[in-house]
Protein 1
Amino acid sequence: MTDPIIHLSTGQNTTIHESGQIYVTIQSASAPSALDASCFMVNDRGQVPSDDYFVFYNQNVDPHRSVVLQHAEDLKSSFVLDTRKLRQAPVEKCVFTATIDSVGTFADVQKCQAIVRAGSQQITYKITQATSETALIFIEIYKHQDGFKVRAIGRGFFGGLQPLAESFGVEIDENRSA
């Protein structure tokens, strides 16, 4: 028997019935430009231990190989979390985000969601209240007792990747003038 699909609303959380690997997909049906998905692996202060714990298209794995960006396209990106390795990593949670690559905002993105799969369990979080944000935190997967939980966040940022990354302690080298 398979578990029913769990639909989270902003702020809700649920236990992940993990079986070694957790799969996270960030996707949309359409967007005005590419969505760049990423994972910030943060400590108990909400900061990355180093830039090596920022997983994205140009750095698709952390030093422990606990989070891997397996697949990245314009409208769909997939991550795989190895829970055994993640328990050993110096982080408390993995925060999954996306930014609009160039043109448009999340108000222009259709059917935007995060999907978490672990064994037969599926958890979804649909973004329904985005406005003119250009960066968005979808979900966080965090250590809880001997397992993991997922929380729906839905927090937006204006200004794209730079303010989002800086909120987690990652410095973005912007070689552009304002």
Note: The first strand starts at residue 5 and ends at 8.
Protein 2
Amino acid sequence: MYNRIVLAVDGSENSLRATKEAVKLVSLAPDCQIDVISVADMSKSKNEILHAQSREELELKRRQKLVPVEEILKQGNALYKLQILHGEPGPTIIEYANKEKVEMVIIGSRGLNALQEMVLGSVSHKVVKRVNCPVMVVK
């Protein structure tokens, strides 16, 4: 079974579903550690920074979005560590997973249609193509 997996989350419904699947998976391997990563998208964070009163307030808002994810992990008795990374989500997740040599990545799908995915690209699609381990995309 797996010893270390990455769970990429953003606080959305899709990432909550991905978290539930991660908990199911690690219930089979109690020693498996989940590296929960959330990427503060640099293109969106400029707006967040402008509207935040302080750096602490900004970090608090980012952490609050992840509280439901942590609750699911705690209820499932999962061993995890949470990190907020900065950068473009796709490449940042890929770099982390490849550098840390994790055994699996679990990520939620935004459910883009074919045209949206072709024009915009999706984070999950980028991750599947470029990460050096199995990827579970949860819809």
Note: The helical segments are 13-26, 42-51, 55-65, 67-75, 89-100, 114-120, 123-130.
